[in-house]
UniProtKB/TrEMBL annotation, chain A:
Residues 209-298 form the AIMP2 thioredoxin-like domain. InterPro entries: AIMP2 (IPR042360), AIMP2_thioredoxin (IPR041503), Glutathione-S-Trfase_C_sf (IPR036282). Keywords: Cytoplasm, Nucleus, Protein biosynthesis. One of its GO terms (biological process) is translation. GO terms for cellular component: aminoacyl-tRNA synthetase multienzyme complex; cytosol; nucleus. It is found in: Cytoplasm, Cytosol; Nucleus. It holds the Pfam family Thioredoxin_16. This is Aminoacyl tRNA synthase complex-interacting multifunctional protein 2.
TrEMBL record, chain B:
GO terms for molecular function: aspartate-tRNA ligase activity; ATP binding; RNA binding. Homodimer. Part of a multisubunit complex that groups tRNA ligases for Arg (RARS1), Asp (DARS1), Gln (QARS1), Ile (IARS1), Leu (LARS1), Lys (KARS1), Met (MARS1) the bifunctional ligase for Glu and Pro (EPRS1) and the auxiliary subunits AIMP1/p43, AIMP2/p38 and EEF1E1/p18. NCBIfam families: aspS_nondisc, PRK05159.1. Catalyzes the specific attachment of an amino acid to its cognate tRNA in a 2 step reaction: the amino acid (AA) is first activated by ATP to form AA-AMP and then transferred to the acceptor end of the tRNA. GO terms for biological process: aspartyl-tRNA aminoacylation. Keywords: Acetylation, Aminoacyl-tRNA synthetase, ATP-binding, Cytoplasm, Ligase, Nucleotide-binding, Phosphoprotein, Protein biosynthesis. Belongs to the class-II aminoacyl-tRNA synthetase family. Type 2 subfamily. It is found in: Cytoplasm. It comes from Hypsibius exemplaris. This is Aspartate--tRNA ligase, cytoplasmic. Its main location: cytoplasm. Residues 1-30, 52-78 are annotated as: Disordered. Residues 1-18 have a biased composition (Basic and acidic residues).
Amino acid sequence: MLHKSAVLDHDALKVLPVYPLPVVYDYVLEVFYPGDIYLLETVYQLPPTNVRVTRTTGTGSSQGAAMTSSSVKKVDISSGDAAAISAQILAKQQTLLGKLKSLRGQLDSIETVLRKEKSTAPPVAAPSDKGGNSVAASEASKKFTQCLELAAGNNDTVKSLIIGESENVLSRLKYLHRKVDELEQSARAAAKSAPKVAKKTSSTRAKQEELVVSADAKYPPLSLIAAANFLAEHGSVLATSYVHSSARQVPDKLRRLLGEDVSTTDSRSGADFIVSLIWKDVGIDTTLMVEPTRQNPILAEANIARYVFRILNANYDSVENLVQFTANDKWLNLAARSLVYGNAKERQSAVRQLNAHLGQQAFLTGPDVSLVDAVVVSALFNAKEYAGLGGNVKKWAHACSQTDLFAGMKEFLV
Amino acid sequence: MKRLKSGEKFSKMADKEQVPPVDGVDGAKLSKGALKKAEKAAKKAEIIAEKKAQVGDTAPADPADGEDVSQGHYGEQPLIQSKEKVDRNLIKVKELSKENGKLVDQLVWIRGRLFTSRAKGKQCFFVIRQQQYTVQALLAVSGSVSKQMVKFAAAISKESIVDVQGYVRAVEAKIEGCSQQDVELHVEQLFVVSASEPRLPLLLEDASRADSGVNQDTRLDNRILDLRTTTNQAIFRLEAGVCKLFRDSLDKQGFVEIHTPKIISAASEGGANVFTVSYFKNSAYLAQSPQFYKQMAIASDFNKVYTIGSVFRAEDSNTHRHLTEFIGLDLEMAFNYHYHEVTDQIGQLFVEIFKGLRDHYADEIATVNKQYPAEPFKFLEPALRLEYREGVRMLHEAGIEMGDEEDLSTPNEKLLGKLVRAKYDTDFFILDKYPLAVRPFYTMPDPNNAKYSNSYDMFMRGEEILSGAQRIHDSALLVERSKHHGINLSTIQSYIDAFKYGCYPHGGGGIGLERVVMLYLGLDNIRKTSMFPRDPKRITP
């Protein structure tokens, strides 16, 4: 009597070795997915595998034979709601990748346990519990050994069969491992390519954001370049500069401040973010206008940066993000109040504050450069302090100019 | 000094004095006494008529005025019939200024119109006007100026053309009512070159005032007088400037000016709004637009063309912005791969026109703003280009309900203009990618989206000034589209044939000169910018 090999009693993973092998499939792997992961298959082309993946519903009836997949929800991408669907897809990808990671962890533990047990007789397919804890696994395997011994007595044939069986299982697990890896990779690749597909017809974001900034040629808003680069990480950006009819003497260099170098697309309807800079004689008040029927104009580059943070992260002001938000605020306030709008004494003290802070930290709000650094650099430039910097501030400014976020700003910082 | 004959010129006046008929009303012969009376009355009438006719004459001389020391220095000149060449330098009023050191305290001759005059006993102030410029002149009784001369000056009717000789004197207090505010002319000699009728149907002072009660119809009926105001002088010089800038800008880009026929055989595009003219034994139509001929010029390898000519639209719309005949500035160009090359070219053209007006016609704009105040015209460089869908979305957000493929109604256009102005601070913008259903049959559909077309409109102060598109340059597609619009192919056969022999992809657009000037200056009626406007109710002057 061949004891049917272990049905690994795991609510996420069941390996059912099928003897004899059906014609097409090597394994039937029953995997638990949350119900709405169905979207995944209709969007991406999975590489053809020999793994027939069946899905169970949320409640997961995992008994018995492999179930045929329930009808896969075909989502009509051409319906106007591509943006919402894409957002959903992105979210689901994240969960899927997480699950795949944990899956692999479990497989790893199974494998290690199997190998361990293989070397020491009697070998056993080690069940792993949720955490993939090898200690617990070995305990369970001990139990199994005991069961086996009871069943098989000291029958060597049985033992050898069991050994062979477990080797089989091991090799299958290896195969599975490989397949999961491939799945993970293809999912990642698909994640990278999917947004591009959606962008061709319309933007992935629900609403296109357009920022219209009016600035004076005497106080160029250099942080806008960094803002455009920052936005480009979250969607496609169209950036243009205009000169207003009332503005006189805008140097040719500034006319190109925001242009093709910063844009990632050249179509208004295909862009997620449109940044339009209008050179006008507004003096020191750099103004942002978004929706004139509902909003007032927003003054100062620091506030434009705050606006950008908020449109990219709806939770920017929330309690979870409090630390980041307050850190940003400190330096944005410094930029606006002390540097741009402040008098000479305030500017000096601001520079001293920066110097002190940057002695301890590479960039203003953490180890990475951020839009806040760009705003402060621009404020220093407009306050005519940029040229005469020294010490930590100088080093920091130099480090900033080497980053990707500051790409394109260098020629204007003279 | 010649007396003017009380002839045809003043026949109106003579008619007013009713000469009683020699024969009685009932046909009976009058008695001798009555005849004599009639004679006396007739003589009296003649004398009165003569007196009235004598504009320039000082007779009957009042002996109480004393001897006339200025005899020969004033009066009415004989009609200039090119009898002799007079070597006299007439200075332009524009140049009379304190700054112009050469002229101060000099004796100069000027010729202009008598704008206003004010006599006070021994003095007479009058203003001489020359196109947009006015200067004050003073005639005071002195050793060389007699009382008779002052009387004569006061009696000259307004709008007469006069030759004045006088000393240019600088004044300390600015003369507010004149364009030349820092000088005054102290008159030595004064002659009338061409007299005007004393009773003017239109007072120019009224016509030049901001809140004048002068009816537009009165103005248009007496256009000759109305056009003399400084404001109108400025408006039409600006209009000439727009034409000049249009030509200059396009010539620089290698465009060729062409002239298209206005008498055409087939009513294009439906034929609802065309004028019919009798053409020998048949009838012909007046061209509604030079569209077809521009395209034929492209098919004839002229590549980039523009044409400036009259456009005739038989629309019975009596609005503030429609005329039946106006000047169309049309352009058409072949492009390489994308019709945005055309759109960018037209946008650049407009920006250059606006910049030219802003920089070189600032005086004219200021003059117009004195009578018709308006906000200065704002624009962006490069021209702002939005998509139709964006415009519709902006309207939706402002609370307007309209379909995505509906055409913009006039109030919606105005609102969109206001929204764009609030957001981008510009009065001029381009709206790209209109829905296909609302465009003419020769508009190229958008290959990426069947519901839209490669067409665009341009707006100034919320009103449409240009409609343009990429045209279909393929006969087969043209036939298909015209069938779709239900157009009888036989009427447009020659048009379709134009593309049979290969044609470059091309696009263009046309603007109305009067409308552009009206919107640039912020005027309220297009008749103000058309010299002799034509509308359903007016075909004269």
